[in-house]
Amino acid sequence: MEDGQGGSWRSVREAFWVGRLGFPSIHFVPEQQELLLRVLSTIERGTDQRSEGRHELFSGDMLFWRFYICWIVSIGLADVDGRGNPLNPLLTEEGLQVRLMLSATADPAWAELRMSEVVDAVRRAHHGGPEELREAMLQSFERESAARPTGFARKTVGRSHMVTLTGLSTEGRMPLRRTFWSLGFADPEHRDDFYGWLAQRVHRWDDWAAIAYNKGADALTQHLLTLMSSSICNLDMPG
After folding, report:
1. Is residue 108 reached through a cis peptide bond, with omega within 30 degrees of 0 on the bond before it?
2. Which domain of life is it from (predicted)?
3. What are the distances in angstroms from CA 103 to CA 36, 41, 83, 94, 215?
4. Listed residue (234, 202, 196) closest to 119, CA to CA
5. CB under 8 Å to 120, separation ≥6 — which residues?
6. Contacts of 239 (CB under 8 A, 6+ apart)
7. What is the DSSP string of 128-178?
8. Do 131 and 148 contact (CB within 8 A), yes or no?
9. How far apart, in Å, do the first and last CA atoms of the chain sit?
């Protein structure tokens, strides 16, 4: 492909990475592009996931997170908010287009689920909104996400109300769907609160499934508890 300025590239990703950003073409470019995609997605989803993103993407490294966010602002993919805080940016039009391009060309491509209605319904329910509306939205989300190769789902087994994570196991001759992780709750309300939290973070599900598959269920439980703790602490932080 050609960029209209005399440059010729093998892909739109190469045109952006080498032509727009001036980075060298090297073997670890794909992993860096995926990191940028996840950071842009975190910024797009708002400040309530800022602290979680720092823990998940940068292992809690505050210095690295701050530098990366300032770098994104410096190259025009994000801009400071109304208070002039560079650590709480908003995506620019170019930043949104880059996020969409990276998402569309990812391998495998991220599923573009209609998440806004689910997120709004879950948040309204937490603030006194109608429970029936949240349940309808969660059911709609479950139908849309059912085709994913890995995914969380709500189940009821006897008196236990559960959230399970299933995915394809490739250990045998034929890939089989099996349960990698599960968590039980005493009542459906708390189970649905947790599932709503997961639904707002569907863009991380494949990474979480990899943790459960490669490191075990306990490792994923610890990871999710760390993220939830970070999310709770972030609510008490000044914006």
Report:
1. yes
2. Bacteria
3. 10, 9, 29, 14, 26
4. 196
5. 137
6. 47, 83, 85, 88
7. T--HHHHHHHHHHHHHHHTTSSSEEEEEEETTEEEEEEEEEE-SSSS-EEE
8. no
9. 43
Question: Would you call 216 helix, strand, or coil by DSSP?
Answer: coil
* Inter-residue contact 137 to 118 (CB < 8 Å): yes
- DSSP element (H, E) containing 217: helix 217-235
Contacts of 187 (CB under 8 A, 6+ apart): 161
Interaxial angle between packed helices 116-126 and 188-199, expressed in degrees from 0 to 180 and rounded to the nearest 10: 140
How many other C-beta atoms are found inside a 10 Å radius of the C-beta of residue 101?
A: 16
**Pair of tokens at residue 113:** 């689920």
Which amino acid is located at 29 in the chain? V
Phi first, then psi, for residue 98 (nearest 5°) are -65, -40
pLDDT in tens, 66-119: 899 999 999 999 998 665 777 788 899 999 999 999 988 876 544 444 444 554
Residue-wise pLDDT for 178-210, tens only, equals 899 999 998 888 898 899 889 878 888 888 998
